[in-house]
Design brief:
Blueprint: H1 4-13, E1 22-24, E2 29-31, E3 36-38, E4 45-47, H2 48-53, H3 57-64, H4 69-78, H5 107-112, H6 121-132, E5 136-138, E6 164-166, H7 170-184
Antiparallel strand pairs: 1-4, 2-3, 5-6
């Protein structure tokens, strides 16, 4: 469920979908050739924005059918999944994001809803940080301590490389950020 905004954002940016575009979600049950998907919030049709809002497995899987396996893989890879983030921490895990040639029949739909992918908390935080940072994926930085009110340093600062990669346009990132903010503040109800 946590991967849906990244897929949606890149699809909007590449003009493969619009946030207001509506797709059939089959009242919460959708059978693909390889698996059956279900939604908790049953609806006949949802916009892409509502797919994110209601975390619709069917909706994101249906939208992602417009992507090739390679395109879906590249979206997830570009957001930093499947490789270490570069944070200055020993033995950082890279998570799991398999190459498309290793996917099964159900992998496209499964990966769109966050299955068959393993991500670390740092990767997920960095990817969501890209939405908050106008589409820039930053190398995470670990802070060992902060200065006190007197300005005394308690210890040293462990810094990442500070590199950033533009992975979403700033207007798409802003739209996704505002959608999440509106939902969190109750401006968009979940019923």
């Amino acid at each position: 469920s946590t991967l849906k905004p990244f897929i949606a954002g890149r699809m909007v940016e590449n003009e493969r979908a619009r946030l207001d575009e509506v797709i059939d979600t089959y009242n919460g049950i959708y059978k693909t050739p390889c698996r059956t998907l279900t939604d908790v919030h049953k609806a006949d049709r949802l916009s892409l924005a509502d797919v994110i809002k209601f975390s619709s497995n069917i909706g994101i899987a249906r939208f992602s059918e417009r992507l090739s396996r390679r395109e879906l893989y590249e979206i997830l890879r570009d957001f930093g999944f499947g490789a270490p983030t570069g944070v200055s921490y020993p033995s950082e895990a890279g998570g799991v994001l398999r190459e498309p040639k290793l996917w099964s029949c159900s992998s496209q739909a499964s990966m769109a809803i966050g299955y068959e992918v393993s991500v670390t908390a740092v990767q997920l935080a960095a990817a969501y940080g890209a939405i908050a940072n106008d589409g820039l994926l930053l190398v995470p930085t670990l802070v060992k301590s902060i200065r006190d009110a007197a300005g005394e340093e308690a210890s040293t600062f462990v810094d990442g490389t500070g590199l950033a990669t533009a992975i979403l346009g700033d207007s798409i990132a802003t739209n996704l950020f505002m959608l999440g903010y509106a939902w969190q503040k109750g401006l968009i109800p979940l019923s």
